[in-house]
Every structure is written in structure tokens, then in C-alpha cells.
């Protein structure tokens, strides 16, 4: 709930808690008002959560995998498809890591420029958790238990 509230407070049109079983229904209700389907899923979770998200994609939708945090925490791994499944669904699916993921969103330079502009005006407020280097174990625990929002930085 705290993460959903945080995302909503930062301007999201819709925020859902993907650990709740009915989260896809909330997305469908939101999209249904516009008779739309999701056009892209940025998947960092994998497993059943990713499958439910991909089921929200319409024809021509894109599934971009950049991690699978469900591995070892929830039951699951990276969601993959056969060529036949992709053709049947009319979607594309690819795995990307690091800056390559941002390129999928319209180009890294354009995103950097927009982000800096938004930060300058105060509309973008990065979420960063800082831990002293001596508390690295606490930082890892916070990440493993999903107790953070945004980035985790160790301060020497």
C-alpha cells in the first residue's frame, strides 16, 4: 500500500499492488473505460505476475523484460515465449538490460533531457534510499524484502 500511495502521489494515473490477486482487474477496469489494451509491459518481476501483465497487452503490444525479481522470492522466473506464442498473441517480447531498456522508451538522450528538466522544476523527485557502507547487509535485506522504493545507494 505504501508503494501504491507513493506512485500515486507522484502523478501516476493508476497504481496497483501486483502482490494482490485482483490487480489485473483494476488495470482492465481502468483501460476498459477507454476501450484500450496495454501497449507495453516493462517486466522486472517475471513469473505469474508477468504472465498476468502480458495478458493485458493488445495486438501489437510489447513485453520488455529487464529482470525477474520473483525468482527465489515468489515462485517464478523470467517469462519467455515461443515464436508461435508471440505470433498467436500478436506481440513482441525481448530481454534488455541497463541503458538498452531506456532506448526502447524513445532514446536515452531524450529521456535524460526530459528527466533533468522535470527535476529542475521539482516535478520529478527521485526516490533514493541511502545506507552507510557499513550497513550494506541492511541494504541487501531491504532490497530482498522489497522494503525500498526507487534506488538503493551505499554511501562510503
Features:
single chain; 156 residues; alpha/beta; Rossmann fold; three-stranded parallel β-sheet; two-stranded parallel ribbon; globular
Structural class designation: alpha/beta
SSE sequence, one letter per element: HHEHEHEHHEHE
CATH topology of the largest domain: Rossmann fold
**Spatial arrangement of strands, main beta sheet:** 1-2-3
* Integer count of domains: 2
Stretches with pLDDT under 50, minimum 5 residues: none
Q: How many individual β-strands?
A: 5
- Please state the average pLDDT score: 83
Shape: globular
What does the largest sheet look like? Answer: 3 strands, parallel
The helix fraction, in percent, is 25-40%
Could you give a short description of this structure?
The chain is of the alpha/beta class. The chain has helices spanning 2-9, 23-32, 47-54, 83-89, 99-104, 108-121, 136-144; strands at residues 38-43, 57-65, 92-95, 128-132, 151-155.
Explain the overall architecture:
About 40% of the residues lie in helices and about 20% in strands. The chain is an alpha/beta fold and about 160 residues long. The chain has two domains: about 35-125, Rossmann fold, CATH 3.40.50.720; about 125-155, no CATH class. It has a three-stranded parallel beta sheet with strand order 1-2-3, covered by helices on one side. The longest helix is centred in the last third of the chain and has 14 residues, at about 110-120.
